[in-house]
Design a protein that fits this description.
- This protein folds into three domains: about 1-95, Orthogonal Bundle (Helix Hairpins), CATH 1.10.287; about 115-165, SH3 type barrels (Roll); about 170-250, Alpha-Beta Plaits (2-Layer Sandwich), CATH 3.30.70.100.
- A hairpin with a 2-residue loop joins strand 1 and strand 2.
- Helix 6 crosses helix 7 (about 235-250).
- By secondary structure, the chain is of the alpha+beta class.
- It has helices at about 1-45, 50-75, 80-95, 100-115, 155-160, 185-200, 235-250; strands at about 120-125, 130-135, 140-145, 150-155, 160-165, 170-180, 210-215, 220-230.
- The mean pLDDT is about 80.
- The longest helix has about 45 residues, at about 1-45.
- The chain is elongated.
Length: about 270
Amino acid sequence: MKYFESLIQNIVNFIPTLLIAIVIYIVGSFLNKLILNLFAKGVEHSKMDKTVQKFLSSVIKIVITALVIIIVLSVLGIPMTSIITVLGTAGVAVGLALKDSLSNVAGGVLLLINRTIKVGDYVEIGAYAGIVEEISILFTKIVTLDNKDIYIPNGTVSTSSLVNYSSESDRRVDLVFGISYGSDHKKAMEAIRSVIDKQQFVNKEKDIFVRISELSASSVNITVRVWTENAHYWNVYFDLIQQVKEKFDEEGIKIPYNQLDVHTIQG
């Protein structure tokens, strides 16, 4: 009987402590949201990259939540040394169980520090290519040109070969036009240059390359290299192909198809 009386008394005595712990948790959760909102508003009009904003927001949320939980456990009477010991042991166990996830976190940190890619960049990561939409703690989300979402672990992103097509302001457009051996190559090169001169998005201040690059089996190949702003790359690429074809038709310049000439010797 005395045992149950003692147990009930201990529970009654513990209720105020439990209520305080609950209040601390509720207040901590509220402060967590408040700090995140203040952070979001503070960087809304700043020059901080969106990738950094989202990453720091996630880190702040995790850190504050961990601190609140530690304070609550301390208020409940759990010794701090015990909390640290448990956290350390749990950290080792979780680290072994989630080593791949931790490598992704490390990869996310490396992406944030090195700034090799950012939200809005058009990139090629391994076998995938698309526009970076999000870089979170664990993965990077890219959207392909045909509107498919691809989620790539940050560990893979940080260790894979990566091509960033948006990191430089200008990009070179490389094209090859083949003309028949019977066509005048000088006339063809002049026709190509006239098309380039009328193309508004081509940077005329940078070197414009129009030269014969190969005498292939069935055509004389002319390589064209021009520079344009990243945003206009595909416009220039497709416009030049179409407009050069139309110009060749006007000038009577033939574009050959693959063929094989067979000569027989009469015996």
